[in-house]
Amino acid sequence: MFNLFLAVFPEIFLINATFILLIHGVIFSTSKKHNYPPLVSNVAWLGLLSVLISLLLLSSGAPLLTMGHFFWNSFFRRDNFTYFCQILLLLSAAGTISICFAFFEEERFDAFEFIVLILLSTCSMLFMISAYDFISMYLAIELQSLCFYVMAASKRKSEFSTEAGLKYLILGAFSSGILLFG
Question: Where would I find the NADH:quinone oxidoreductase/Mrp antiporter transmembrane domain in this sequence (predicted)?
Fold first, then answer.
């Protein structure tokens, strides 16, 4: 039972850290007491820290990977290849968040939700990598695409961003329907 929990602990930790960052951002960004502070840098550093902790938790579960393991009624599979891909994904997510610091400064972008969306899409990609069943893969792809829809339309004052988000949503809805119904 402990091996089962240890195998999915990086994903569970990253989801919980993402929700805590979301709650932290919502509470403090709307706080009149703290004079509505810009939290994007704070949330970005905490998001980077949570990705690195997830990377550490994933590497601590590596001795379990001598052979392929199935979890949760064969919804997820964990073997050496999924381990390698998840390490690569978490390193890429850490690099993406670290690149975002320059973007936030240059564009004066002050929406902490962007980092939360990056972390949620990273969680869904982690689930998609270890998915062994079609339904778990489909749900992970849908969660990832929902995050990307919002990220594509994140610039509220730009018509191009709104158009891109809407087109991406329509294209995703059609491709999801084709994927489900054949």
Answer: 131-182
User: b vs e for 27-51, b when ≥16 Cβ sit within 10 Å of the residue's Cβ?
Assistant: ebbeeeeeeeeebbebbbebbbebb
pLDDT for 73: 67
59 residue type, one letter: S
Retrieve residue 76's tokens: 């997820």
Please state, in angstroms and rounded to a whole number, the distance separating the CA atoms of residues 93 and 89.
6
Which residues lie across from 77 on neighbouring strands? Answer: 70
Q: What is the pTM of this model?
A: 0.86
What is the rounded CA–CA span in Å between residue 55 and residue 88? 9
Radius of gyration for the alpha carbons in the chain, expressed in angstroms and rounded: 18
Stated as kind and residue range, the H or E segment containing 71 is strand 69-71
The answer to whether 110 and 104 are in contact (CB under 8 A) is yes
In this structure, are residues 110 and 140 in contact, taking their beta carbons and an 8 Å threshold?
no
CA dist 20 and 25 (Å) reads: 8
> Which tokens is 162 given?
């709104």
Q: Is the model's pLDDT at 35 over the cut of 70? A: no
